[in-house]
TrEMBL record:
Name assigned to this protein: 23S rRNA (Adenine(2030)-N(6))-methyltransferase RlmJ
Organism, scientific name: Hemiselmis andersenii (Cryptophyte alga)
Annotated GO biological process: rRNA base methylation
Coiled-coil spans in chain: none
Pfam family, one: RsmJ
InterPro entries assigned to the protein according to its UniProt record, in alphabetical order: RlmJ, SAM-dependent_MTases_sf
GO cellular component: cytosol
GO molecular function: 23S rRNA (adenine(2030)-N(6))-methyltransferase activity
Length: 102
């Protein structure tokens, strides 16, 4: 699956260059693979990323009655730039306010 390919690509990138910044965007879906992706990325980054990792999610909607639909997106960053956390903390609330469909 694409999820397995993403994990393999992250592992390979960090094996080749443990200091490299690797960013993975993913959709927030009700699929089991989607909900487990962040945990699997964290496990891989814990083992190989020299500067840690950052995981953020932007949830702007709820799934429909049947559990379908994209609720938002997530971004996983291995070896994030040191300013990224603070910059995202400042702008994500504004994005939720503007894009939210609650």
């Amino acid at each position: 699956t694409d999820y397995a390919k993403v994990l393999a690509a992250l592992r390979e990138a960090l094996e080749r260059a443990p200091d490299t910044v690797v960013m993975v965007w993913y959709p927030q879906l009700q699929l089991l693979e989607s909900t487990q992706l962040a945990q699997r990325l964290k496990a891989s980054a814990d083992a190989a990323a020299k500067k840690g990792w950052l995981h953020v999610r932007l949830t702007v909607a709820q799934a429909d009655e049947k559990g379908f639909g994209m609720m938002g997106s997530g971004m996983f960053v291995a070896n994030p730039p040191f300013t990224l956390h603070d910059e995202l903390a400042a702008c994500l609330p504004l994005l939720v306010e503007r894009l939210g469909q609650f």
